């Protein structure tokens, strides 16, 4: 029996990590990030346990669309499924990795990158190669998925679309057409992936399983692939 080979596709999740910049009404910006703190030290725990054993307890607060994460349709459309409404079959899928590396900042990805094979039922992962810019200003100048690509994803019946950038939409596009159109059709979106070049030309199963959080629009995931 051949052992499975797994490829980790997730950013590390940690206190103070690169987060989400939000423009405030007064024109200023605020960055929302992960805040992790110790709520009970090992010494406190050991004392409570009569000096026998000590455990450290932690608490974390974070925006759910941070690190490598998944958007549910509810993120854009209030009448649609939230994170808890997704089934395992929605987030464990056969995958296709598409090479979009070498593009200019803010480039729009066209249909020329798409394979001839059907995308039906697949997680379609677009490899911009942008994870190398994680934590830098250039990360925000990522390429974006063009409307013809969105048309094909919808027409074929793809189940999920993912990118190794902070958004599938063009930077600064307030209309967010990629999110709006795909989530309207129940095509999930995963962002901030890493290492997609390791999947190019490979057969794999993609996993992006969030906790079963009711009312959540998005959720961080431990995304990975199982090579087949």
Structure characterization notes:
The chain has 4 helices and 15 strands. With 228 residues, the protein is of the alpha/beta class. It has 2 domains: 171 residues, Putative cyclase (Glucose Oxidase, domain 1), CATH 3.50.30; 42 residues, no CATH class. The strands form 4 sheets. Strands 1-15-13-7-9-11-12-6-14 form a 9-stranded mixed β-sheet. A two-stranded antiparallel sheet has the order 2-3. It has a two-stranded antiparallel ribbon with strand order 4-5. A hairpin with a 5-residue loop joins strand 2 and strand 3. The model has no long low-confidence stretch (mean pLDDT 96).
Largest sheet: 9 strands, mixed
Our estimate of the beta-strand percent is 25-35%
The structure class reads alpha/beta
- The coarse silhouette is globular
Strand order of the largest sheet: 1-15-13-7-9-11-12-6-14
Tell me the series of helices and strands, N- to C-terminal: EEEEHEEHEEEEHEHEEEE
- Report mean pLDDT, rounded to a whole number: 96
Ends: how far apart?
13 Å
The CATH H-level superfamily of the largest domain is Putative cyclase
Task: State the CATH class of the largest domain.
Answer: Alpha Beta
The CATH architecture name of the largest domain reads 3-Layer(bba) Sandwich
Radius of gyration: 19 Å
Poorly predicted runs are none
Helix share of residues?
A: 10-25%
Number of continuous helical runs: 4
Write down how many β-strands occur, each being a DSSP E stretch of 2 or more residues. 15
* CATH fold-level label of the largest domain: Glucose Oxidase, domain 1
Number of domains: 2
